[in-house]
Each structure stands twice: as C-alpha cells, then as structure tokens.
Design goal:
This is Lipoprotein. With 383 residues, the chain is an alpha/beta fold. It has three domains: 21-133, Zincin-like (2-Layer Sandwich); 134-234, no CATH class; 235-383, no CATH class. 47% of the residues lie in helices and 15% in strands. The protein has helices at residues 7-18, 63-84, 115-120, 124-132, 137-148, 154-162, 184-205, 207-211, 216-227, 238-241, 275-299, 304-311, 343-351, 355-359, 361-379; strands at residues 28-32, 42-49, 52-57, 91-95, 105-107, 110-113, 245-248, 254-257, 262-266, 315-319, 327-329, 334-337. It has a six-stranded mixed beta sheet. Helix 2 links the parallel strand 3 (52-57) and strand 4 (91-95). Helix 6 crosses helix 7, helix 11 (275-299) packs across helix 13 (343-351) and helix 13 crosses helix 15 (361-379). The longest helix has 25 residues, at 275-299. The radius of gyration is 25 Å and the shape is globular. The chain starts with 6 loop residues before the first helix and ends with a helix.
C-alpha cells in the first residue's frame, strides 16, 4: 500500500523553509585563499543564503554585524535580479576590513567590500557585476544606478553630454567611474549617463540585449538618438581605448588592459590633471602608435616583419610621476613613462631591439627621435 504524506505536513515543511530568516541561518567558519585579482589569505565567518554567500573577515567579525549586512546584501541582490533575472553564477560577497584597492571591487566573480560599503550602497555596482558578469564596467554601474537611484534629470545630463569637453564621459571610459581618477562631479555625471543608457536598453531592447553590449559606441548611439543628444565626436584612437577594462592587481596597483597591445599600470600622475585629460592622452597614444607602425613599415620594409612581431606582443606601460625619467626596457617589453619623454619615443626603442642598435646608443636614440618626431608632428608632444 502506498504511503501518502499528509498535505498538512507538506505545507508545514514549506512554511518552515520559506519562513527561514537570516537570524536562523547557521554561521560557519571558512577561509579565503589567495586568488587572481585578490591575493590575500584570511579566515572568515560565513552565512549561506538564497542565491548568495556572505563571508566576513575574522579579524573584524561580529555576529550581529554579519547578519545585518547579509540581510542588506540579500535584499539588494533580490532587487537586481528582479530586473536582470537569475544571476549567471553563484554570488559571493566578502566583508573585509579594507579592500586591496580601497574601494568595493569584483575579482574572480567575488565581491570584496567593507560593511560600510554595504550600508551606503557603494558596493552595488560590484554586486551587479558579480551577478551578471557584464563585459564592461559601465553596465554594472548603470544597472545599480537604474535599480537603486532616483531618475536622472535628463535636461542637465543632455547639457553636460553636449559639451565638447565634459561630453567625453559618453566614451564610457572606465576611469570616469573611479573616484581615484575622476572628481566627484565627473563620477556623478558618468554614473547618471550610464543609468540613462541602461534605462533605454533595458526598457526598449530588453535585459539580454543590454547585458551583451561590448561596444560602448553602439550602446551610446541608439540612446543618444532617442534622447536627441548631439554627442561629441570621440578622439582618434577611441576605439582602441574602448577595449580597455580597469582591474586591480597585487599591492594596490590598478591596471587598464584588454586590447591585447598594451597593459597600462596606473599610479597617481602629477602630469595628468583630470580623467578627460588622461583619456585624451591615451587616445593619442594609440592613434600615434598606429601611425608609428605605418612610418616604420614605409622606412624599414625589409626589417618590418621583426618589428611587427614585437608589436603583436603585449607591451607593459608603467605610468609614473614626472620626476621619474622615461625609459624603455626592450628585453622586458616594458616602457616606464613619466612626463619628460613621449610614449612613441620609448615605444620605438621597444620595437627595435636590434643588437647593433643597442650597442650604439646614439644610433638607437637617433632612430627613436626620427620616428617619434614624425608622430609628434601630427599628434603633438604629450606632457
């Protein structure tokens, strides 16, 4: 004879599970091991909730603080998934005393932030990124702002975006969203632009189309047409810069990478005053690098295959303060770039590591000066 579970018992079990709150979930001990993007090892106390695991660094652990923060994280994730659907991966949030970058960040699909970041909501873009793995930073910023912030004042945004200088935020360059590199007003307007663009794509094209956007120019074009915004023309080289993504590496160093040609290691630079100034410099670096290769191919047809092979390697560029002399290390495919010398001059050194040239520094310098000078004629000396 078949056994039947009484309906009342089923309802009771469902009620018990659905009614389970954060305060009733058991806390376990764990450990975060060093991983790519967050090379720190620490013990944790962990709460596993529906769709998200929240772990707190042991040295700052308080049970009530962990549970309160976990409730906020669970509610925020629920609000994000109400728009975007189920997360594409398991979401894990680490509450630490201080992040590697000093800001909320996502590394290897995990969120690292402080309890204060959770309370004030500044971690939400990182949470959105962890949930949906967007191709670009502006999408996680835009979705978080779309879900949690007040609607944008479109008239003010339109005026800001149509200005030839401030309108460069429509490049959606990732440093515009970083308070380390951009001032408060720039960060705010970049976030509002991302929110407005997100609203257009989610409401008009759907979340799937929005989440698959990789080209910022495509994202902006349709939105600008609908908003009747005359977006400024972006500088030559912008398409290359658009491929760059902001990342954090060991020892608090931030990097821009992703185009396959250069990795930019960023430090505070006294020779680049604003995010827009640096953005325009980067665009000119890329445009000039393309011209440099054209000039070298025309002047060195028999040797250019070797130059081209080096150009296909990823070259590291360490951006430093102006009191540091610029130099090239061809053997390491590395450029140390201060303000005293041009990028293209040092790039020429990296692209021409001929043993004969290296033994004759005057010849090496002469070649670099020749080719870099041709680029500077078009793009100007960058200081």
């Amino acid at each position: 004879m078949k056994r039947h579970i009484p309906l009342l018992a089923i309802c009771l079990v469902c009620f018990l599970f659905l009614g389970c709150t954060v305060s009733e979930v058991s806390i376990t001990q764990g450990r975060h091991l060093r991983e790519t993007g967050y090379m720190v090892d620490f013990r944790t106390y962990s709460l596993q909730l529906e769709g998200v695991t929240v772990q707190m660094e042991a040295r700052g652990y308080e049970e009530s603080t962990l549970k309160d923060a976990a409730q906020l994280v669970e509610a925020d994730l629920s609000a994000l998934t109400a728009v975007g659907g189920a997360p594409v991966q398991e979401v894990e949030v680490y509450l630490v005393e201080e992040t590697v970058s000093g800001l909320p960040q996502t590394a290897a699909g995990h969120v690292f932030c402080t309890v204060s970041d959770v309370k004030d909501g500044s971690y939400r873009p990182a949470l959105a990124q962890a949930a949906f793995s967007f191709p670009k930073l502006w999408q996680s910023v835009g979705l978080a702002s779309y879900v949690f912030d007040a609607p944008v004042e479109e008239a003010a945004l339109k005026s800001y975006c149509e200005d030839p200088e401030t309108g460069l935020i429509l490049s959606l360059f990732e440093l515009y969203f970083s308070p380390v590199f951009a001032d408060g007003e720039t960060c705010l307007m970049a976030r509002q632009a991302a929110r407005s663009i997100t609203a257009y794509w989610v409401e008009q094209e759907g979340f799937v189309a929005f989440s698959c956007l990789e080209d910022p120019a495509e994202a902006v074009a349709s939105w600008a047409e609908q908003q009747n915004i005359a977006a400024p023309t972006l500088p030559e080289g912008a398409a290359s810069v658009a491929q760059l993504s902001l990342d954090v590496v060991q020892e608090n160093q931030m990097v821009l990478k992703g185009d396959g040609r250069f990795i930019w290691y960023l430090e505070p630079m006294d020779w680049s005053s604003t995010a827009s100034d640096f953005y325009q410099k980067l665009c000119r670096y890329y445009a000039g690098a393309d011209l440099l290769l054209e000039e070298m191919e025309a002047a060195l047809p028999r040797s250019f295959a070797a130059v081209k092979a080096i150009a296909h390697e990823e070259i590291a560029v360490e951006l430093v303060s102006s009191d540091t002399t610029s130099l090239a290390r061809p053997a390491d495919l590395t450029i140390i770039l201060g303000a005293g010398n041009t990028f293209w001059h040092e790039l020429t050194h990296v692209l021409t590591p001929n043993p004969l040239l290296l033994e004759n520094s005057w010849l090496c310098e002469g070649l670099a000066t020749l080719f870099a000078g041709q680029v500077e004629t078009k793009y100007g000396m960058i200081h």
